[in-house]
Amino acid sequence: MKKVLGKLLMLVLVIGLLAACGNNDGDSSSVSSDGDKKVIRMATSADYEPFESIDENGEFVGFDIDLAKAIAEELGYELQITDMDFNGLIGALQSNKADMVLSGMNATEERKENVDFSIEYLPANSTFITAPDNAITSLDDLEGKTVGVQLGSIQQEGVEELKDEYNLEIKVVDKAPLLVQEILAGKIDVAYVDKDVAEGYIEAEGLVGFDDPSTSAPGYAIAFPKGSELVDDVNKVLEQFKEDGTIQQIIDKWGLGQ
User: Fold this and answer.
1) What is the average per-residue pLDDT within 230-247?
2) In contact, 42 and 81? CB cutoff 8 Å
3) Are strands 169-173 and 53-54 parallel, antiparallel or unpaired?
4) Alpha-carbon distance 198 to 78, whole Å?
5) What is the pTM of this model?
6) Which pLDDT tens digit goes with each residue over 147-169?
7) Which one of 38, 41, 48, 251 has the minimum C-beta count within 10 Å?
8) Which residues, 6+ apart, have CB-to-CB distance to 2 below 8 Å?
9) Answer CATH for 27-123+219-254 from 3.40.190.10, 3.40.50.720, 3.60.15.10, 3.40.50.1010
């Protein structure tokens, strides 16, 4: 009798272990769960006002943050945001550390080789900014100058295309605000950044700038891991937000495109 009971107990334990292993699928899902609440993990580089930054209270703020919150609410998710260097955002998607990226990211053909993108939610333009005492007002004035860009940005790609034509020296930094410090310290002649970001620096630091007439960059879009089931759902929400004025309200709130 004891042998029978012992075998039954062992069988119960084995079944329990197999069931536990079968339910342990934490990292295999693109969207995690917190109890009964679905969680969507967003990665961003919170150094790019007015798109994403961290305020004095330690809260994420900006256009992309508000858009992500609205999307998560519409789809019934709890939003979790992680801050990291811009150059690590695509890697975070590829390694399942994030479900989506909103970070002023242009949907370039090169990036599309590694991630999927939503439809574009904003157009994108670039601007060169410099100190007011520098006589730099056009591309021709860049001849032989040192240009600063953020690592991994569309502007880094763009300035590489201009490098040989204008004999440029390129300096790359991890965080966009460092570019302003480099200008003010005289370590670079100009910085090359998104137009809306540039306007904030111009106003705050008394800089000057001119728009880049040489290229038309792809617009901003949300990035996802390859094959993500979220893409279609998010695209439907973005189309809805474009039609009902939600995106325009967020644009007006953050003063974009002015």
Assistant:
1) 98
2) yes
3) unpaired
4) 32
5) 0.79
6) 999 999 999 988 998 999 999 99
7) 38
8) none
9) 3.40.190.10
